[in-house]
Design brief:
Layout (H helix, E strand, L loop, with lengths): L8 H12 L5 H16 L5 H28 L13 H4 L4 H26 L2 H15 L13 H22 L4 H24 L1 H6 L5 H5 L1 H26 L11 H13 L3 H31 L1
């Protein structure tokens, strides 16, 4: 089915599922797991807000993915030369209007979740939600889209690290425990690493489209150095957090270090699209596994 041809509800739903980019969604779930674990380690737990935070994060991520799909297409970044996974607008599976409708629906559902969270956690949730949705749209839309002016990495580190982890702790515990601030650093670093893998893969086509990512501006080697720095930061943060909390359980994420090394080697040694697309999915899995182990370490630290 194409956006302009006939087709039933099944092909339409499959196209929307592709646009949601399920392989990227661990980036939304991981910080919620860590933030909720930090709240539980501090002695507070509320199931409703924890589940709502996860739902809201997923919806904002999906809405952002829809926005990226349609706005990258309209700005000329998604062409036949693109090495990345299928984009539904560029492929004609959905029209720009349909993708925008999906974006509005996802962000609208996120607002509904946010109303509940604001009722249980107060006005700061409104500020977090508005900023997150605005940033999700501004990532590829508007006169100065974040991804096109080299601000993608700070945006991801801020919103998928500090905002998501600490915001989740806030809605679950009513405050932000000290452990949440520290745990947000490696989560933000690995979430940013997902973006960097994407940007290293697309550095040539991004440069042609005027998308000034770090890798597009300074080259593939610079992108690889950026990736290495983020991985080093993530794996130094865990033992630092363990030392600060005096809990050896917080070094559990080090078990994922071999996967991080393999990820870097794959991105450094290969330039073909299919291999780097698998590496991109692997970077999201790495973040999720790291977050699960970090959450387990936080819970152990809290019970110790």
């Amino acid at each position: 089915m194409t956006a302009r041809g006939a087709g039933g509800i099944g092909p339409l739903l499959r196209a929307y599922a592709l646009a949601a980019r399920p392989k990227t969604l661990p980036a939304a779930v991981a910080p919620v797991l860590v933030g909720a674990a930090a709240a539980r380690a501090a002695g507070t737990w509320r199931t409703g807000p924890a589940l709502a935070a996860a739902a809201g994060a997923l919806l904002i991520q999906i809405g952002t993915n829809f926005a990226n799909d349609v706005y990258d297409y309209e700005k000329g970044a998604d062409t036949a030369e693109r090495r990345g996974p299928l984009r539904v607008t560029q492929a004609g599976l959905l029209s720009p209007r349909q993708v925008r409708a999906g974006m509005v629906a996802a962000f609208g559902a996120a607002v509904a979740v946010g109303i509940y969270l604001a009722a249980v956690a107060g006005w700061p949730v409104v500020a977090i939600g508005v900023a997150s949705i605005a940033a999700g749209i501004a990532y590829t839309a508007g006169p100065m889209p974040l991804a096109y002016v080299g601000l993608g990495e700070p945006f991801v580190f801020l919103f998928f690290g500090l905002v998501a982890v600490c915001g989740t702790s806030f809605v679950v515990a009513g405050r932000v425990p000290g452990l949440a601030w520290g745990a947000a650093v490696p989560v933000g670093a690995l979430a940013t690493a997902i973006l960097v893998v994407n940007n290293v893969r697309d550095h040539d086509t991004d440069r042609k489209a005027g998308k000034r990512t770090f890798a597009a501006r300074f080259g593939r080697r610079a992108g690889l150095a950026e990736l290495a720095g983020l991985l080093v930061l993530a794996y130094l943060a865990s033992p630092a957090l363990a030392a600060a909390a005096r809990s050896p359980a917080l070094v559990l994420p080090a078990l994922t270090l071999p996967s991080a090394v393999r990820l870097y080697r794959t991105v450094a040694r290969h330039e073909d699209g299919p291999t780097l697309n698998r590496a991109l999915a692997g970077s999201a899995r790495l973040l999720l596994l790291y977050a699960i182990l970090l959450a387990a370490g936080l819970l152990a630290a809290g019970s110790g």
